[in-house]
Amino acid sequence: MNMDGSIADAGADAPRLRSGLISRRSFLAGSAVGVGALGLAGCAGDGMSLAEAQKLYGPMPNEKFPIPAIDVSKVDPKYYRRTVAYDSKEAPGTIIVDPANYYVYRIEGDGTATRYGANVGRDGFRWKGDAYVGRKSEWATWTPPKEMIKRQPEAAKYARGMPGGLDNPLGARTLHLYQNGAYTLYTIYASLDAESIGNGITSGCIGLLTPDMIHLYDQTPVKTKVVVLAA
């Protein structure tokens, strides 16, 4: 259940087009949504060269399902992972989601935060409030809620669950968000879709590029506080 009492879709991302699977973005947005490639070749900005970004977001062959490199030329350089000055009264380790600016912050406790670019909920699916990480999953099974199947009948084939893998909407790592002991159905998840970063395209979940999500996941224990700001 959402923070406002409505029902969210678990796993906002969706299967990529592979071997006849439904378009990933058709699940992301519930309709055909076109997000143009940014075509940002050259210097990555913020002191990071494109070559450095390509290394940071390079392939991860040792994963259970080997992860391909992210096409960083399709990501605005301002969304690359970096350490930034960030004043906060929240405890170190707290995750702060800023959907208005498409960022996720991890508070480091010394006046700085690690900042990640993100995709967020589209219009009508955004939310705000406090939650916490109730559980963590690697290569999680994705099960579309009944509400999603009603809106998108093509999701019915996964009603009993879609096993983990590169085509799975939740990706390589997932932080499941809870409130008052109950699963909200919202997640912070791993995405391979470079063009999704900096856009509102999900059903309320928050997506990070897979290398960023793994970086955050590895530092985030269960019970970590998550603050979602107003969009």
UniProtKB/TrEMBL annotation:
GO biological process terms on file: cell wall organization; peptidoglycan-protein cross-linking; regulation of cell shape
Q: Name one GO molecular function term.
A: glycosyltransferase activity
Tell me one Pfam family matched here: YkuD
- Is Cell inner membrane among this UniProt entry's keywords? no
Where does the L,D-TPase catalytic domain start and stop, copy by copy? 93-229
Q: Which family does it belong to?
A: Belongs to the YkuD family.
**NCBIfam families to which the protein is assigned, alphabetical:** TAT_signal_seq (TIGR01409)
Record's protein name = L,D-TPase catalytic domain-containing protein
Q: Which organism is it from?
A: Bosea thiooxidans
